[in-house]
Amino acid sequence: KMAGDSRFPDVDTDGSEKSEEMEIVVNVGGVRQVFYGDNLNQYPETRLAELVNCLSGGYDSIFSLCDDYDPGKREFYFDRDPDAFKCIIDVYYFGEIHMKKGICPICFKNEMEFWKVDLKFLDDCCKAHLSEKKEELEEIARRVQLILDDLGIDASESRWKKCQKCIWKFLEKPESSYPARVIAVLSFLFILISSVVMCVGTIPDLQVVDAEGNRMEHPTLDSIETACIGWFTMEYVLRLISSPNKLHFALSFMNIVDVLAILPFYVSLTLTHLGAKLMELSNVQQAVQALRIMRIARIFKLARHSSGLQTLTYALKRSFKELGLLLMYLAVGIFVFSALGYTMEQSHPETLFKSIPQSFWWAIITMTTVGYGDIYPKTTLGKLNAAISFLCGVIAIALPIHPIINNFVRYYNKQRVLETAAKHELELMELNSAEGKAAGSRSELEDLSREGKEGPFYSSRIKVSHSDTFIHLLSEEKHHRTRLQSCK
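^ Voltage-gated potassium channel regulatory subunit KCNF1, sequence as received from the core. Prediction below:
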């Protein structure tokens, strides 16, 4: 019957049954839903609205929109995610869509594209969740691509380019090899030794007196400092030469810290040997001392070798709003309590509160519970004001701590999940390439060899087809898969 008749017996081709009054049944993953044409036609470009008007077009029109159709029940069948569908149909009743908790945002976006519902109907809170998931997938794709770039060797590249890549991987990626890990440990030790020498060099018993009676660092400590600076200089120059993007390398925050840690040594050395001829010796010594203080910048080099410090830095960057609230609370409290303290202490003849700006120092050390005791109230009202001020200070400091800790934990866990996901994608790519090789894909291997690759594992055309969330950035082709198919 389906082959002989292109129209359905229950459809009135003269249009006596209007689409607005039509009732259709949609079966999505075993869940039946009944819709009326007047509701669906509010959004005529959606797939459900097209179902209302497709009956007169025959089987070809119907099966281009659904997986199966029962003409007796007038029921359309779809092999899609029923949970996502229940959220999507809210657009016909409420004009907006909310994504339920537990549904993958990327899969939900694919479901919306299948039902031809525009993303503008998705609520803002759900859009933010979707954007966050997209950023995670982009980060995973970036990590996978970096690993593939490290593993792949392009035969068409010059020997200098290959050497640059090897040096860059040797210095920037400690996990790439055992010698790279050794270099990373050595760099960490040099930073530690340099910081210890800077601190020990200020101990008077370990300093020596020059011919003019001025104290200076011990020659042994100075030699150790010179060796450390030599290591830092060699490391920075090699990284600069081997970096793929020189401008981005020079403007990176950690590389600016490296320059600030190295530059004072050479500037002070230049001033010591040449500055005396241009200015007075005392001015040269003062300039050298000021530059030597800048050596404390090298302690920030530890962040390059510590994922914990990097996570803390990111958490603080993401917590600017909470830190701003903390500073605002403290600023308001400092101004109010310092003014009250100054006013209440004026009646005492031996008051220590000479002015409101001077009282700011007392308010700061009181609200932060430091309490040096150099300025303190002597009247009863002043002491009561002090008690209220440090109680308010404790509350003001404690309020934003929890969001900052949450940001730290969230970012730390996210980095671990992304690292695991990147390794999982690589394993799937290796598995797919092994299956393709076992199937005898000789032509692919020949194409890859002409492209200068070592094997199918390093090809950018390898697609991760078994993962639940396909990374589109690693493939030129677009895969359309339902959540049900992904979870099978």
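DSSP finds 20 helices and six strands in the chain.
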